[in-house]
Structures are given as structure tokens and as C-alpha cells.
Design goal:
Mean pLDDT: 79
Low-confidence stretches: 439-448
Helix content: over 70%
Largest sheet: none
Structural class: mainly alpha
């Protein structure tokens, strides 16, 4: 295996960036098409809330928590015995698939029961119905997340970051086919298009993953899986610790939409369009650097090479700050112009553009700390410390919920305040990493 260096990390980040550019450009096209065809009315907002709810566990069972726990374990097994690494991936794939199947069926049953409650408003009934339609997509999204983790461990960053464009393209095709229908009639059909697109996204990664596993263990039998293997069990504890933090963040993201919906029926749509733009630089650069740094950090931690570990972390910090500081300034200076240029067409009127820009400014407050938090997470995950990220995440969620309640219920501010609360909470999250840092923290050195 080649030695990890700054150059190899930069090359991996560039490959991830190349695929992410394609994904984000198609995502932008998707959002522009949605805004043009349906604007930001209540049914579109209901669809976007349902999309968030249906993918609530995406970061828990498919990305984030899974990747943080999978990568160090896989790297360790591959170093000791490649066959065991292949068996670990196979068993985890079947175990995750079984868990998702049961969970989705259970969730759909709960949603159907809730939808029968007569006390719900028509808008809430619409959200529950759309969430039910979108739930099967969680199965494919999470299995894609596992495949993406394997591909990134094998330095195949381009493929893992490019295939999400298939979901965006499927969504866009659905919008184009449904243009002209009232949004209330179009949204259920759009949900079906999104689910089909998630399946295509997962399927696109299967051949490459099969090829990797075949090289590690040519004689491995795919049908003789064991979801209770020792290696899969060893993933349970770190997964549970990581899930606690990620789940809180995901629930917090979903409740953000509810706070915004309470303040303004169109509020979730404003937040959706704004956060798409805020997450563009975060995905292109922050996540690219974070994903590229995790496997090298895991290898350095496994070897006990503290000097190399710290140098990789410092490199990630410097690169992140060099990119995020000017981008943040650019959002405040040119964000309104960009929103009008990108979304200001069709049913997306000037009022929608103004409210989206205000939300974008709120989110931009937290762009720099959000990117640095990604560096933190990778450093702690690589060393097997899952408690510190969990505690920091829970603390920031409490802060965000408190601020949302204060701004919406206490001060009577509108949906823009949800974005402001999110931005402030990102700084709190970053600060809590320092407060909760253990001895020999990967980022702060010796705790005092």
C-alpha cells in the first residue's frame, strides 16, 4: 500500500470534489426545476418536510455514523487479513439490509396509524402521506452509504461522490414530467420518482464493490452470510455512540422544518432552497476534505504514528479555513444576486427570493464551524473516540432547540430565525469539542 502523504490526501479530495461537483450541479438543476415548476407553495413545503422525515435515519444507518465506525474497523481487518475484511463488508451489508427492511415496514405502519387520527390538519395529513411514499428510498440510500464507505477506503472517491447525481436527475425528470399539474397532485408522483432514483443510485455502486471484495477474497461465498459475526458485533458499540449524536442532529434538522412550518407555511421551502446553496461549498470542500482525510487518519492511528496523525489534521484545518472564510464573505456580499439568478424564475417570485436570501444569511453564520466540525469528527472517529462527538452534538442540539423555541414562540420571529439558530448552534458545536476534549485530543493536544 502506498504511503499516505499530503499529496495523496489532496488527490483523493480532488477526486471526491470532481464527483461532488457533478452531484451538486445536478442538485442545483433539480432545485431550480422544482422552484420553477412549483415555486414555494404549501404542498412543495410539505414534500420537502416529508423528504427530510423519510431520510431522517439516512445519516444514522447509511452515512455519518456508519462510515465513522466502518472505516477504522475495515482498515484494521484489511491490514491483518483481507479475507476477514471482505467477510465483514458482506455480513454488514446483509445485516444492514435486514434491519432497514424491518424498520421501514414498521415506520410505514406507524405513519398509517398516525394518518388515521382525525385531529390532524390537512397539511399534516399531506406530510405523513408523502413521508410514507418516500420511506422505501431509505433502504437504497443507506446501502449506498455502506458501499460509498467501502469505495472511499479503496480510494475510489470519484465514483462514490458522483453517483448521487442519479438521484438528482431522477428527481429532475419527475419534475419535468409533472410540470403543469397542481403541486398537490404532483407531489405523490414526484415521491415515486425519487424512490426509483435512490434505487438507481445504489445499483450504480454495486459492481465496483463486488470487484473490490472479489480481489480481497476470490473464493468468498456471497450467500453464506452471518449478520451476527464477531466483526459486525464489534461495530455495535461505536455505532450506538455515534448514532446518539447523529440521531439528535437529524431529529433536530427535522424539527427545524416543523418550527419553520409553524412560523410560516412556506417556511420549510425557503429554508430548503437556502440550505441547498449553503451546503454547496460545504459539500464541495468541507466534506471532500473530511472524507479524504478519514482513511489516512485511521491508518495513522492504527500504526500509532501521532506525528503523522497531527500533521494530517493540521493540513485539513488549514485547507478548510483557506476555503471557507472567503466563501462565507461571498455569500453575504453576493448571495441575494445568486438566489435571484438561480431561482428567480417561473413561480418563484421576488418575495420567495428575499426570504430565501435571509435564510441563507442565517445559515452562512455557521458555515466555517460546520466545516471544521467535519475535521473534528474524522479525527475522533479515526481514533475510536465516539463519545466526544456524541456529547458535543447533543449539546449543540439542545442549544438549537432552545434558540428555535425562543425565536419562534418567545420573540415571534419568522422562519428566518430557524436558519440563524442553526448558524449559532454550529459555533456552539465547535466550542463543545474543546470543552469535552479528552486527553490527547486529535485536534487540541493535551487537555489541561
Amino acid at each position: 500500500m502506498k504511503q499516505d502523504t499530503f499529496k495523496t490526501i489532496a488527490r483523493s479530495a480532488r477526486h471526491f470534489l470532481s464527483g461532488t461537483v457533478l452531484s451538486r450541479v445536478t442538485g442545483l438543476i433539480r432545485d431550480v426545476a422544482t422552484a420553477y415548476a412549483f415555486g414555494a407553495d404549501a404542498s412543495v413545503a410539505a414534500f420537502l418536510v416529508a423528504f427530510r422525515f423519510s431520510h431522517l435515519f439516512r445519516r444514522i444507518l447509511g452515512e455519518g455514523a456508519l462510515q465513522g465506525a466502518f472505516t477504522p474497523r475495515y482498515e484494521k481487518l484489511k491490514h491483518e487479513d483481507p479475507v476477514q475484511a471482505a467477510l465483514f463488508y458482506r455480513d454488514l451489508q446483509y445485516g444492514l439490509g435486514s434491519l432497514l427492511f424491518v424498520f421501514i415496514l414498521f415506520s410505514i405502519g406507524i405513519l398509517q396509524f398516525a394518518n388515521g387520527w382525525s385531529g390532524l390538519s390537512a397539511g399534516n395529513h399531506e406530510i405523513i402521506l408523502l413521508t410514507t411514499y418516500l420511506m422505501p428510498g431509505l433502504f437504497f440510500i443507506c446501502l449506498y452509504g455502506l458501499n460509498a464507505s467501502l469505495l472511499q477506503c479503496e480510494s475510489k472517491y470519484l465514483l462514490s461522490s458522483a453517483v448521487p447525481s442519479l438521484l438528482n436527475l431522477g428527481w429532475t425528470v419527475g419534475v419535468l414530467l409533472l410540470t403543469g399539474l397542481p403541486s398537490a397532485q404532483a407531489m405523490p408522483w414526484l415521491a415515486l420518482c425519487v424512490v426509483l432514483a435512490t434505487g438507481l443510485q445504489w445499483a450504480a455502486t454495486v459492481p465496483a464493490c463486488r470487484s473490490i471484495v472479489h480481489k480481497l477474497a476470490p473464493q468468498m461465498a456471497w450467500r453464506s452470510w452471518d449478520i451476527y459475526s464477531l466483526n459486525v458485533k464489534a461495530l455495535v458499540k461505536p455505532m450506538l455512540l455515534t448514532i446518539a449524536g447523529v440521531a439528535a442532529t437529524q431529529v433536530n434538522s427535522a424539527t427545524d422544518a416543523l418550527f419553520a412550518r409553524y412560523a410560516d407555511l412556506e417556511g420549510p421551502a425557503y429554508l430548503w432552497y437556502a440550505i441547498r446553496l449553503q451546503q454547496l461549498p460545504l459539500a464541495l470542500f468541507g466534506i471532500a476534505i473530511g472524507n479524504a482525510i478519514l482513511p489516512p487518519l485511521a491508518r495513522a492511528a492504527r500504526e500509532g504514528n501521532q506525528e503523522r496523525f497531527q500533521s494530517f489534521i493540521r493540513y485539513a484545518w488549514k485547507a478548510t479555513l483557506a476555503l471557507m472564510i472567503p466563501i462565507t464573505l461571498g455569500i453575504f456580499l453576493f448571495g441575494g444576486w445568486a438566489i435571484q439568478l438561480i431561482f428567480g424564475h417561473g413561480d418563484f417570485n421576488s418575495q420567495d427570493a428575499a426570504m430565501t436570501f435571509y435564510c441563507l444569511e442565517g445559515y452562512a453564520i455557521g458555515l466555517i464551524p460546520s466545516a471544521l466540525v467535519i475535521c473534528h469528527l474524522q479525527g475522533f472517529f479515526a481514533r475510536g473516540d465516539y463519545k466526544t462527538p456524541m456529547r458535543a452534538s447533543l449539546g449543540s442540539v439542545v442549544c438549537n432547540t432552545f434558540l428555535n423555541a425562543l425565536f419562534i414562540f418567545g420573540l415571534g420571529w419568522g422562519s428566518v430565525s430557524v436558519a440563524i439558530a442553526t448558524g449559532i448552534s454550529a459555533w456552539v458545536n465547535l466550542g463543545l469539542f474543546y470543552v469535552f476534549r479528552p486527553k490527547l485530543s486529535p485536534l487540541f493536544g493535551e487537555a489541561t
